[in-house]
Amino acid sequence: MVNYFPEEVLEHVFSFLTSHRDRNAVSLVCKSWYNVERFSRGKVFIGNCYAISPERLISRFPRVRSLTLKGKPHFADFNLVLHDWGGYVYPWIEAMAKGCTNLEELRLKRMLVSDASLELIAKSFPNFKSLVLVSCEGFTTDGLAAIASNCRFLRELDLQENEVEDPRGQWLSCFPDSCTSLASLNFACLKGEVNLAALERLVARCRNLKSLRLNHAVPPDVLQKILARAPQLVDLGAGSFVHDPESETYNKLKNVMQKCTSIRSLSGFLDVNARCLPAIYPICINLSSLNLSYAPGIYSKELVKLIRKCKKLQCLWILDTIGDKGLRVVASACKELQELRVFKSDPNDVGNAAVTEEGLVAISAGCPNLNSLLYFCRQMTNTALITVAKNCPNFIRFRLCTLDPITPDAVTMQPLDNGFGAIVQSCKGLKRLSVSGLLTDQVFLYIGMYAEQLEMLSIAFAGNSDKGMVYVLNGCKKLKKLEIRDSPFGNMALLADTGKYETMRSLWMSSCKVTFGACKSLAEKMPRLNVEIINEGDEMEGGSDDRQNVEKMYLYRTLVGPRKDAPDSVWTL
Amino acid sequence: MENTFLGCGGGISGGISTVLREENNMAMSSEESSSYPDEAELELGLGLSLGGGGAKSKSKPPLPAVAAAGPWGQYARILTAKDFHSVVSTKESSSSSSSSSVTKTNNNPSCGVKRTAEPSSPPGRSGSSQVVGWPPIRTYRIQSLVNHAKSPMTEEITSALDKCKSNNTIVDKTNIGSNLNRNVAKEKGLLKKPSLFVKVNMDGIPIGRKVDLNAHRCYKTLSQTLDEMFKLSAAVGATRSNAEEQVVMTKPSRLMNVSSEFVLAYEDKEGDWMLVGDVPWEYVPSTSHYIFLTDSAPLWLVYVLAKSIKFIVFSSLF
Prior knowledge:
A: globular; B: 7 strands
């Protein structure tokens, strides 16, 4: 019966499908659905830019308007991947500029973005509206200037945690006077100065501006003027919040803040004088999201005073300076909390700021809606994890990171297997898990048995034998990304189920026990996988030893064969 | 004032005191070449030593001259340019510290001043700082914390400092408080600002004092107060009586040559030593918990920003 629906009707029905997974599923039903779907698909998500080529993308989805691309593997964030490994966006933009000029939105993560790419975007897509760059690098503010100057309908410029060089610092003044469409501007990660007068004028004329995140170079008096012009802001990132509490500017700021009743999300405070935080108190009650994880200048006491007022908070990112005591306050005040991230304030851990299992237990007891956690802690216990699992069965993301990667249960000195076992058993919807601490193969047995929805698993310094990895590969049917470092998994595990890797996006293994020979044989057996070996030293000359352990291996499924842009130190087998 | 980055990593505590003695020795030797021979009369003991560096180190025997136990971990000090070079040349990077610095501060030019790793820290603890990419924190985030722990101050702060320099603030009254904790209980009271009592200890003297940092608006008055408290301008080695009364200062404060050409250094979160110009007073009350007095030429004004343990070290100079 389905075949009798005219295509227009199908198209209309499909227009209600926004998730790319639903759309992918729909396109598999039959040929006609495949065709209707592909012509109506506006948003495409590509989790690994080397899995497919831009040309194939455009030929299947000729009307794509929004493209999301991810480049480097996740462990690149922690200096485990070469800077020039790859992930260049230029070929994509070039291809789109030729074949698909109605591109409106581009979202990139961990990619290498050159100024030339940005300039090409600015020139090629007349309707370009939205650029979101997360953890990218390779561009300067010159590229941003090109975007600002040429994209007449730009609505969103969102730069999150990018490494950006700033040779000239005048990019902000490149927004023409006719640009009034900006709704979201985030330049918090830029290190250089900005033209403050241009910023003020820009804010004044963009009446739809809802989200504004400033960098540290915007001084308090300008912040105050901006807020006076834009009381409609919903999301604010204050760069510098260093005032003299007795100054006129601070008084003005306090008054202006009170009128900003739409603000729901607050972040930044890169430079802060904690005594000025009371200016924010009036808006705390409305906040649903608070990110103070870049504000080392706020100490536990002020932090707690502030958070105590945020009764409607759903998302909180803070530093471990808050301490267990502070977390107890969070647990009692923020009953609607869903996402919590506690970052290390002190990566070398030379001081005393830390949270322990006690803080986590308190949170779990006070915040039953908690579903997403990232927790850097000094120690953990099985009992605590079991309690947390009982209190919060709704976890979707659970990422624990102990300071010492192989620390045992702080009380019993046993491995933390049972604690994590409880988590996976209780949280039936768990999609992302990072384990840490002293862990044996047993934890992977639990994960394989219970983590049915698990899509991403991060393992470091864990397990005893190949069996651990095999439990995971066999058990987690929905696994998409597996990343392993410094764990004793070897060839037997790698080759146990080679077909599995075609159902996954990627596998990363570094400092494990996998040999060159095993990687070669895997690559031979599975032509639709790219098996890349990353060599930092010069261990691998031609005629390398098959029995030698591979330092870093990254494999991923692909439809387009080995890539041609890999640097010399990356071998595709 | 240029910023120079001295990479420091690894553990603290016992290691620190060792390191400090070395540094102090170097400072002493550079004193000989200084143009202020009067210093010889003031012979306070060296040994800026710190107590335990954290919960795990509390079991260590308390080191001398620290009257109160506490998880003191970090400190910084003012170095002269001379000191800076000698300090740099003597500090050997331990392999663990250097590897952690290398991997974590790859964009910071490191001058190789590192602390030796804590010898008795639990193996896991020092082990974790040696592992590349652990804890798994984005480089961007690490650098941001580093950069904003040592960021330059704004106009308003420096103007506050200027205001202070031009007025003569009354030296506060100090009491030996009975409680050893920072006291902000007077918030709603008569005082416009809450009192911020911090403990003051002088090297070699077992009894400590307290001073209210909020009663001061600049270093000068604080140093005068401390001068009076510990009678540093008077003869050396006087055992402290519990002197509540103020001693009228006849000599200028020896604690601090105001606007002298000393170099202020502090240690940021990354464990790097940073050199700045004047650290505005604005930052001092909110970040100081403890004051330590010691003597070793040149004058070291030690200021700690980064960690939860913060104190100022005063030393006589020139």
